[in-house]
Amino acid sequence: MAELQTKPTKVSAARHIGAIANDEQRRDAKALVALMRRVTKHKPTMWGPSMVGFGSYHYKYASGHEGDSALAAFAVRGREIVVYILGFKGRDALLAKLGKHRTGNVCVYIKRLADVDLKVLETMIGRSVADTKRRYPKPR
After folding, report:
1. CA-CA distances (angstroms) from residue 65 to 12, 71, 75, 86, 88?
2. Cβ distance 18 to 26 under 8 Å?
3. Which of 41, 70, 101, 105 stands the most exposed, by the fewest C-beta atoms within 10 Å?
4. Is the dihedral of CA 64, 68, 69, 71 positive or negative?
């Protein structure tokens, strides 16, 4: 099996965020660190070269594939911020209230935090973390 590339590193999350060239994205990243730290009660850790993650969980699928992932995470990618929010009951209803965004399977793409309702985003992250802990209760 191939080695996972998205795993915790020793790189400083603060240094990574401080190196973001765009001032608005850097401010938004700092705001997301505060929000995710408050929700998860974990310090930020770099997962791979660009993902800032909080906490971790171990997953194992029916296929036998298993690994570790961050409970909550975000990354600044190009002109967007990607917030990783796993599915949970009520996700679509909250997405409808979030504000300007687009989605992928577990990704919520936001151009700037000013475009979204931060209370809704915080609720979504909290629900995602709670559901992930429920589905994967075995600690890392």
Report:
1. 29, 18, 24, 18, 21
2. yes
3. 105
4. positive
